[in-house]
Amino acid sequence: MSEVVKPIAEFDYDLFVIGAGSGGVRLARMSAATGARVAVAEERYLGGTCVNVGCVPKKLFVYASHVAEELEDGGGFGWSNKGDLSFDWPTLIKNKNAEIERLNGIYQSLLTSSGAHIIDGRAKITGPHTVQVADKTYTAKRIVVATGSWPNNPSFPGAEFVATSNEFFFLDQLPTRAIVLGGGYIAIELAGIMAGLGVDTTLVYRGDLLLRGFDDGVRHFVMQEVQKKGVKLKLGDNIASIEKAESGFHVTFDSGNNAETDLVLSAIGRKALTHGLGLEKQGVALRANGSIIVDQHYQTNVPSIYAIGDVIGGLQLTPVALAEGMYLSRFFFNPEALIPVDYTNIPTAVFCQPNIGTVGLTEAQAQREFGAIQVYESSFKPMKHTLSGRDERSLMKLIVDAATDKIVGVHMVGPDAGEILQGLAIAIKAGATKRVFDQTIGIHPTAAEEFVTMRVPRD
Q: Alpha-carbon torsion 406, 409, 414, 418, what sign?
């Protein structure tokens, strides 16, 4: 798609980025570092969802929720924990907020030191080369939308009483009872956090199996393990309505059952944050769900307008947005270094308890693509729990294309799964075969060595 614009001197900026999340900040600062005139507008907080109400606070809270279990496990190793032990939610919130403010400052420093101009406020596209923030209009040769995504809201009666992940990280107090609505990774992560902190937690999902899109073996295994951690599962049901009660909320389900709770937390997916940006008026093509349609260069059907990150409806992962931001910066200002984003074999982790790590194809996907496959699978009690006595198991799974011996999928459930899978993702990206794994000497004693010692495929 060719781009016809005015001479560059006629614009205030070479590049105007709307949204200072992970992708927008990477794009803005790398572009400004080339000498380009760059502005980035942000109406909420620097760092976007990941830093403020996503990956970072979530993992800090996961750490917090593990502490009591770690102390309990110490008994099997000779440690006594008979003193008073208490948890203070406001302290966690305060310390988390301090860390987020520190990261906000780092993002601000990265942008300003690169030469990018930060504009506080909500931006609206008013023309193919114009953006309005408050009462001021800016012109730019190129405009990039990087506004990310936002939690979906339920529509049942009483939905106004529901909190989302945005509010969870700022709750004034930790509830005694909580109901989490949803069956995806955000729902299972937040449910695990609360259960680990001692909250009576129930996860409600309309389907019969959590984590749609993940390997079925992993899904079944995780459902068993999270229940051991205290998360109650209410599957095949949904919330019909919520009413305010004398103490907390009265929840009615589609099944006709009822429950009392202090918190209803909705995690039913996220949508592209495009409302109010002026895209429709400029003729930018959107999907029915509001996400922006782009080509291989992240260009919309309006030549001067581009988009990256969650807002284009792809994988909602911070590293993906970063990669897209880097690509677009090079596409605009350093084309000789241009490397397309490779969306195959992207590793990911779910910080439920225990963790999930995954890269490549699920077993069902591999069967559809290759036909003949071999599956190597191992389930075992982690070494730590031979003394702790905790009833927790890990799962490791390798999926191999029988015709080429290439490993096309790796999946793990267990402690530090994300840490382990990052290294294996490199091997998968490099095209490693099962024979290469077999020839690799394991690190003993570790859980990770199981991936290079599985010799017999599953029947």
A: positive
Q: Is 66 a catalytic residue?
A: no
CA distances from 250 to 177, 408, 410 (A): 12, 47, 43
* Separation of CA 377 from chain center: 26
State the Cα–Cα distance between residues 327 and 167, nearest whole angstrom.
Answer: 33
Residues 27 and 128 in one domain: yes
Given 250, 268, 286, which residue is the final one in a domain?
A: 268
Cα(119)–Cα(130) distance, rounded to whole angstroms? 14
Q: How many CB atoms lie within 10 A of CB 386?
A: 10
CA 371 – CA 180 distance, rounded (Å): 38
pTM exceeds 0.85 for this model: yes
Domain that holds residue 201: 159-268
Q: Where are the alpha helices (DSSP H) in 334-384?
A: 363-370
SS3 at position 232:
strand
What letter represents residue 252's amino acid? T
DSSP H or E stretch at residue 35: none
- Give the integer Cα–Cα distance in Å for 49 and 30: 20
Distances 416 to 92, 226, 320, 358, 401 between C-alpha atoms, Å: 22, 16, 21, 12, 26
- What tokens does 238 get? 């949904």
Look at the block and give the residue holding tokens 């049942």.
156
The whole-number pLDDT of residue 4 equals 41
Q: Is residue 147 part of a domain?
A: yes
Residue ranges in the chain whose pLDDT is less than 70: 1-9
Residues facing 399 on adjacent strands:
375, 409
pLDDT digits (tens, 9 = 90+) for 36-80: 999 999 999 999 999 999 999 999 999 999 999 999 999 999 998
Q: Do residues 120 and 47 both lie within one domain?
A: yes
Between CA 300 and CA 278 the distance in angstroms is: 14
Kindly state whether residue 457 falls inside one of the protein's structural domains: no
Q: What is the length of the chain? A: 459
**Is omega for the bond preceding 175 within 30 degrees of 0, making it cis?**
no
Amino acid letter, 390: R
Confidence at residue 9, expressed as pLDDT on a 0 to 100 scale: 61
Q: What is the DSSP letter of 452?
A: G
Tell me the two tokens of residue 32: 């400004």
The answer on 236 and 132 residing in a single domain is: no
> Which is catalytic among the residues 129, 220, 250, 444?
444
Tokens of 42: 């942000």
pLDDT tens, 395-454?
Answer: 999 999 999 999 999 999 999 999 999 999 999 999 999 999 999 999 999 999 999 999
Say if 439 falls within a structural domain: yes
